[in-house]
Amino acid sequence: MMTGILTSVQLGHYGILAAVLFCIGLSGSFLGKRDISRLMSLMLMLNAVCLLLAVFSVQHSDAAGQAMVVLIMLTGVIELAAGFIIITKAGEGKEEESAENNLHS
Amino acid sequence: MLQVAFYVLAVSTIVSGLMVVISRKPLHSVLYLILCLFTIAGHYFLIHAKFLVVLNLILGPAVVLLLNFFFVLRFENREDTRETRMFWMKTVAVSVAGLGILVIVNLLNGAKQELIQVRENIPITLQTIINLLIEKYLLPFEMISLILLGVLTGVVLFGFRKFQKT
Fold first, then answer.
1. Is residue A48 part of a domain?
2. Is A72 within 8 Å of chain B by CB?
3. Which one of A77, B31, B52, B59 has the largest count of C-beta atoms within 10 Å of its C-beta?
């Protein structure tokens, strides 16, 4: 089997990069003051996992990893869209409530 | 050369990821998130996963850009209601992140170091990925499409519903 080494980067370095990115996303999802920044931190975590999956899929020349990445990204997009709409409606509710409170006070 | 490209991309990925969390203005966070997605697409390009490059360049930034900008432009002036976040939550977040990084870096240092290898005789093309998706992983793929349909319907119903005071 002919094996061509096309990249000269160690596998562990990709792992470290993905781990650091995942931990940044994890801490951001705890520390985020706004709901929108929490959702973006979730997106960071998803991307870290996707990167590692793609790297191992290439390493073992198995396309299943990349298929999983496609599925994960689709799910992430769904989650993001639903989250934004729910936050938007919740924000509208809060705005209406505060407007009514201002009127009554 | 590729190593230098990897390190430049890795540093920019981590810095932009950090800026997503650190930035005070949500608009800046969105732009940094898009930069982060672009750099991750660069990583996919380095490991010859071209389909994922296209997916990451089109799907991610498009969704993030459209939804986030809509959200940010609408609620940018809204007051932040979560200023008083609990102290223990911050402590837990920082300690979990620090411990996670330490444990994973130690594990990876102990592991066998091997180079990324792209086998040229078994290329992962779009054809193989699509074949997998419509043969082996048909059920999850269809489930996701059903969930997407459900979410879209729910969101439309939710969007038209007037807010009710409790």
1. yes
2. no
3. B52
Candidates A63, A77, A81; nearest CB to B129: A63
Its domain, for residue A74, covers 11-104
pLDDT tens digits for B112-165? 566 666 666 566 778 888 888 888 888 888 888 898 888 888 877 877 766 555
Whole-angstrom CA distances from B19 to A1, A2, A74, B25, B84 are: 44, 42, 25, 10, 22
Percent of chain B clearing pLDDT 70 (strictly above): 75
DSSP class of B120: S
What CATH number is attached to the domain comprising A46?
Answer: 1.10.287.3510
Per the domain annotation, does A73 fall within a domain?
yes
Residue A3 in domain: no
| Nearest Cα residue to A50 out of A75, A13, A79, A83 | A75
Q: Inter-chain contact A71–B49, Cβ cutoff 8 Å?
A: no
A83: amino acid identity, one letter: G
What does the alpha-carbon distance between residue B110 and residue B128 come to, in Å, rounded to a whole number? 34
The tokens describing B115, both together, are 């180079």
Q: How far is A53 from chain B, CA to nearest CA, in Å?
A: 11
Is position A4 within any domain? no
Per CATH, is B1-77 categorized as 1.20.120.1200?
A: yes
C-alpha B18/C-alpha B32 separation (Å) is 9
ipTM of the complex: 0.82
Place of tokens 């996992």: A49
Residue B82: in which H helix or E strand, if any?
none
